[in-house]
Automatic annotation (TrEMBL):
<dbReference type="InterPro" id="IPR011004">
    <property type="entry name" value="Trimer_LpxA-like_sf"/>
</dbReference>
<keyword id="KW-0808">Transferase</keyword>
<feature type="transmembrane region" description="Helical">
    <location>
        <begin position="27"/>
        <end position="49"/>
    </location>
</feature>
<dbReference type="InterPro" id="IPR001451">
    <property type="entry name" value="Hexapep"/>
</dbReference>
<dbReference type="Pfam" id="PF14602">
    <property type="entry name" value="Hexapep_2"/>
</dbReference>
<dbReference type="GO" id="GO:0016740">
    <property type="term" value="F:transferase activity"/>
</dbReference>
<keyword id="KW-1133">Transmembrane helix</keyword>
<dbReference type="InterPro" id="IPR050179">
    <property type="entry name" value="Trans_hexapeptide_repeat"/>
</dbReference>
<keyword id="KW-0812">Transmembrane</keyword>
<keyword id="KW-0472">Membrane</keyword>
<protein>
    <submittedName>
        <fullName>Acetyltransferase</fullName>
    </submittedName>
</protein>
């Protein structure tokens, strides 16, 4: 189960009531920063912008590819470890707005994680150290450290132990 906090609402759907839950100016500023950062070709500068203006926690040597979209409303709930790669056009969500409620959840991506292109990471997810996520996956539950996962919905392809065995047999 994803680790999200649920907030019930009354009246129209929760997205219609968006600015009761987050400041318009915060969303506006975050949108501008994210649009700029998507096109910055320098990883160090990109990470500095995310850390400074969006309050994201990003480890050293992490590479966030072109067109990655972190959560526009709650980017401060995203933590990415050191020396990880977030692939092209990936979306990392820390919120979801539903009809009768909205949910918020921290996203924690470990050290030396590889996330393939066009992946969607839902709120309240933890991806363990040295995990590999295949391109196009929808991450709707936690990923164990060292595992290889993929698909929509996400499925475990190899455990850490199976990956180690597979990698050692190739040498």
């Amino acid at each position: 189960m994803r680790k999200t906090e649920r907030y019930k609402i009354e009246g129209p759907n929760s997205l219609w009531q968006l600015y009761k839950t987050v400041s318009f100016w915060k969303v506006f500023k975050n949108t501008v920063i994210i649009l700029i950062v998507k096109f910055v070709p320098f990883m160090g500068l990109k990470n500095w912008l995310y850390r400074t203006f969006l309050k994201m926690k990003i480890g050293d040597h992490t590479a966030i590819a072109f067109m990655v979209t972190p959560d526009i409303m709650f980017p401060e709930k995203i933590k990415i470890g050191r020396n990880s790669i977030i692939g092209y056009n990936t979306t990392i969500l820390a919120h979801e707005y539903l009809i009768d409620e909205y949910r918020l959840g921290e996203v924690s991506i470990g050290d030396e994680v590889m996330i393939g292109a066009n992946t969607t990471i839902l709120p309240g997810i933890t991806i363990g150290d040295r995990a590999i996520v295949s391109a196009g996956a929808v991450i709707h539950k936690d990923v164990p450290a060292g595992a290889f996962v993929g698909g929509n919905p996400m499925k475990l392809i190899y455990t850490k132990e199976e990956m180690e065995k597979r990698n050692s047999s190739r040498r």
